[in-house]
Amino acid sequence: MEKIERTIIVDLLKRTDYGQKVNVKGWVRTRRGNKNVNFIALNDGSTINNVQIVVDVAKFSDETLKPITTGASLSVNGTLVQSMGKGQTVEIQADEILVYGTADVETYPLQKKGHTLEYLREIAHLRLRTNTFGAVFRVRHNMAMAIHTYFHERGYFYFHTPLITGSDCEGAGQMFQVTTKNLYNLKKDDAGKIDYSDDFFGKSVSLTVSGQLEGELAATSLGKIYTFGPTFRAENSNTPRHLAEFWMIEPEVAFNELEDNMTLAQDFIQYCVRWALEKCTDDIEFLAKMYDNDLIERLKFVVDNDFKRLTYTEGIEILKEAIKNGHKFEFPVDWGTDLQSEHERYLVEEYFKRPVILIDYPKEIKSFYMKQNDDGKTVRAMDVLFPKIGEIIGGSEREENYDKLAERAKAMGVPDKDIWWYLDTRRFGTVPHSGFGLGFERLMLFVTGMQNIRDVIPFPRTPNNCEF
Ligand code: 4AD
Ligand code: MG
C-alpha cells in the first residue's frame, strides 16, 4: 500500500482541496451498495461523523471486499472528492484498501443497531465504539479541559492530594480500607481489635473520600487551588447518581466567604456548560436527538440565568407549604433532617424552575469542618441543586476558629490523632476560607442528558460491579 500521511476524520471533513490523495484509518460502521458501487461509513473516533468511502467494485478483488463488515478496521488510500450525496460535503474515492482486522458478523456484539444502554454496560469494553459513547467520552474530555482552563486562567494552582489517607474528611464512615495484611490470618489485640502496627503503613488507612482537608493546607499557603482526581465511597446505594469511584473537582480559596463561594460555583458551572455548547456541538446535538429533546434548551437556560440562593430553613418552609397544598413526598420534611432528592428536585424543577443554592444547613447533618453560624444551630454550608440531578456541588465556608473547630471534630467523633495537622492551619495564621466539591460525573450527567451515572464514566464501579 502506498504510504500517504493519515488525516483524522474530524479534519478531513473540513477539507476542500478536492483531488488530493488522502489516507484515513478507522472502523467500519456500515457497508452498503450494489454490485457496481459500495459505500463504507468509516469512523475513527475523532468525531461523531463518519466519512463515506466510495468503492468502485470493479477495481477491487472479492477477497479484499468480503471482510469489510461492521466493526472491521481499515486503512484507505483514495482521492478526496466533493460529495453528491446528502449528509456530507466530502467523501473518498477509494484507490487502495487494507483490512487490519476483521469482525465476525456472527459474533461481533455491535452488529445490529439499537442496543439498550443496560446491555451496552455489560460490554463496556466495546461500547466505546458506539456513537453514543464516542459522544459521551469526547464531551468528558472537553469538560476536563474546560475545568483546567477555567482555574488556570484565573490564577488557581492544580494541587495533587493523596488518594491513600489516614483521615475521613466527611466523617461518614464510607471508606474503603487499604491493607497488605493477610486477611485469612489477622493479628488481633487482647480486646479482639485488629492490630495494624505490622501493616504496610503501620496504621489503618483508606482510600480518600475527598481531597479537601489537604486542599485547605494548600489554599492557606498558595492562596487559590483546586484538585481534580478520583475519590472513593463505599456507600451501598445503588442509584443512578452514585458511584463507588468518582472524580471530584475541589477548589479551595483563602479569604473567600460563603457569598464568594456561591459566586464561584455559579460562574464555574456556567463556564463548563458554555464550553460544552460551543465546543461539543455535534456530540451534544446527537445526544439531544437520541435521549433528551430538551437538553440544549436546559443547558442554555443554566448559562443565562442566576442560580436562586436561599437558606435551608426557607427551603423547608416551601416544602411544608407544598405538602399543605396537597403535594405528596415519599419522605417526611422536618427541620433538622437531610433533604431527599425528591425534595431538592421539587425546589429546583417545580418551585423555582432554576438551579438553587441552599445554604445554612443544620450543623448535625453536615461535616465537622463547616463554619458555625451565630445562631448555634446552623453552619455555613452550601449545596448547589440542579434539575434532573439534585445535588451537583457540596461545599462551605470553613471554620477558621481553632477552638470551635476542635470542639466540633470531637463532638462528631473525628479523632485528634487523625487531623492534628489540619487543626494546625487554625493555630498558625488562620484565615477565613471556603471551597466546594463538584462531582464530575454529576456534571457529565447534566451536560450529556444521560440518565444513569454508569453511562458517563468509562468503567463504572458500583456495588457488586467491578468488571473491566
Ligand atoms: O457533598 P460532598 O460529600 O462534599 C465533599 O466531599 C466536600 N469535602 C467537598 C468540598 O467542600 N471540598 O461531595 C461533593 C460532590 C457532591 O455534591 C456530588 O456531586 C459528588 O461530590 N458526589 C458523588 N458523585 C458520584 N457518586 C457518589 N457516590 C458521590 N458522592 C458525592
Ligand atoms: Mg453533599
Rg, Å, rounded: 27 Å
Could you give the count of β-strands?
A: 16
Distance between the termini: 36 Å
How large is the share of residues in beta strands? 15-25%
Mean pLDDT: 96
Q: What gross morphology would you assign?
A: elongated
Which hetero compounds are present in the coordinates?
Answer: 4-amino-1,4-dioxobutan-2-aminium adenosine-5'-monophosphate, magnesium ion
How are strands sequenced across the largest beta sheet? Answer: 6-10-11-16-15-14-13-12
Protein structure class? alpha+beta
Please, how many helices? 14
pLDDT < 50 stretches = none
> How would you spell out the order of helices and strands?
HEEEHEEHHHEEEEHEEHHHEHHEEEHHEH
Largest sheet: 8 strands, mixed
What is the percent of helical residues?
A: 25-40%
Short structural summary:
The protein has helices at residues 9-12, 62-65, 117-122, 124-127, 131-153, 212-222, 258-279, 281-291, 295-304, 312-324, 341-352, 402-411, 416-427, 440-448, and strands at residues 21-33, 37-43, 51-56, 73-82, 90-101, 157-158, 164-165, 177-178, 205-207, 224-232, 245-254, 308-311, 356-362, 378-386, 390-397, 433-439. The protein has 468 residues and is an alpha+beta fold. It is elongated, with a radius of gyration of 27 Å.
Fold topology:
Blueprint: H1 9-12, E1 21-33, E2 37-43, E3 51-56, H2 62-65, E4 73-82, E5 90-101, H3 117-122, H4 124-127, H5 131-153, E6 157-158, E7 164-165, E8 177-178, E9 205-207, H6 212-222, E10 224-232, E11 245-254, H7 258-279, H8 281-291, H9 295-304, E12 308-311, H10 312-324, H11 341-352, E13 356-362, E14 378-386, E15 390-397, H12 402-411, H13 416-427, E16 433-439, H14 440-448
Parallel strand pairs: 3-5, 6-10, 12-13
Antiparallel strand pairs: 1-2, 1-4, 2-3, 4-5, 7-9, 8-9, 10-11, 11-16, 13-14, 14-15, 15-16
The protein binds 4-amino-1,4-dioxobutan-2-aminium adenosine-5'-monophosphate and magnesium ion (MG).
Residues 169-170, 210, 212, 233, 235, 242-243, 246, 248, 250, 391-395, 435-437, 439, 441-442 line the site of 4-amino-1,4-dioxobutan-2-aminium adenosine-5'-monophosphate (4AD).
